[in-house]
Amino acid sequence: MLRLSPDEMIAKISAAEPFYAVSHDYSFTLKIEEYTYFLCGAVHDGHEFRKELWDNCLHTEYDRWYEEDPCTRQMVQSMPMVIAGRDSRFEYDLNRAPDNAIYDDAWGKKLWKQPLTEEQKKASLNKHSNFYHVVHALIAKMEELFGAAIVYDMHSYNWKRWDRAVPVINLGTSNIDNERFSAFAKAWCESLKTIELPNDIETTAAINDTFKGNGYFLKYITEHFDHSLVLATEFSKIYCDEYEYVIFPEVVEAIEQQLKLHVRNHATSFYNEYILKNNLLPKK
Q1: Which of 40, 26, 109, 30 has the alpha carbon at shortest distance from 69?
Q2: What are the residues whose beta carbons fall under 8 Å from the beta carbon of 179, sequence distance 6 or more?
Q3: Inter-residue contact 33 to 80 (CB < 8 Å)
C-alpha cells in the first residue's frame, strides 16, 4: 500500500492509474484495482481517534465503537474500487456536511469536557475536505470513462436499541432520483434478501424502514453528478454483539463472500439497463 497526499491520489485518478493507498495523514484508504462503473464506500468503518483528543473526550472507546460501523469495509474489500474512512466519526463525521461534521454531543451525551479549539476543529475538517476532494475526482473520472456510476454506500446500525422488529438490511432512498433509479434500488433490496447468513439468522431487507438515506456522502455525490446513483445500504449489527463488544467473524465472512456476487450482478444490471440503454458511454 502506498502513502499518498490527496493531490497525488487525484493525479493518479486523472491518469486512470490503478493504485492502493492510504492518505498521507492515514485518515482514509482508496483501492483501485481497475477503473469501473461501480464503487464501494465505507465512510464510518474507521475507529482511529486523534491522540490529542483522548483526555478531553467523555465517551469511552467502547462508546465510540458502538456508534461506528465496524467491518463495513471488510464486507466489500474484495471489490475492485473501495474507499473507506479510517478515523472515527467522533473526530469528524464523513457522512455529515462540514458545518456539522464535528460533534458537540453524540447520542444524547456531551462529547467534550472542554470545547475544542479552532485549531483542533480545523485539523479534523481538513481531513474531511481532503476525503471529498478525492471522492469528487474519482466520481468525475468514473462518469468520464463510463458515462455514469453506481456507489454502494455501506453502513451498519444497532438493531437492539429499536423497540420493534427491524430489517437485517435497510436501504435508504429518500435522496436519490427515484424517478430514474427506483427500479435499481428495489432490485438491490430484493437481491440482498437472498443473502444466506449463519447462526440461523433470517435475512430481511426493506427500503426506508429504519433510515432514509440522508447521509452527506450520498447527498454530495447526488448533487454534484448527474448520472451517479448512491445506494445507502445498512446492515443491522447481526454480525456482532453490540453490548459485549464481540465481532462474529463467520457472519462478516458470509456477508463479504456473498456481496462479491451480489454487488457485481447488480452493478452489471445498472451498466446494461442504465448506461447502455441511455447511450451514456463516451464516444471513442
Answers
A1: 40
A2: none
A3: yes
- For residue 226, the model assigns a pLDDT of 95
Cell of residue 144, nine digits: 468520464
What pLDDT score does 112 carry? 97
Fold of 2-276: Aminopeptidase (3.40.630)
What is the pTM for the complete model shown? 0.97
Q: Which helix (H) or strand (E) holds 38?
A: strand 38-42
Q: Is 180 helix (H, G, I), strand (E, B) or coil?
A: helix
For residue 210, the SS3 value is coil
Q: Chain-centre distance of CA 108, in angstroms?
A: 24
Task: Say what angle helices 249-270 and 178-192 make with each other, to 10 degrees.
Answer: 140
Is beta strand 228-236 parallel, antiparallel or unpaired with respect to 169-172? antiparallel
Q: How far is CA 218 from the centre of its chain?
A: 9
Where are the domains positioned within the chain? 2-276
pLDDT in tens, 35-53: 999 999 999 999 999 999 9
| Residue 202 main-chain phi, psi, to 5 deg | -85, 120
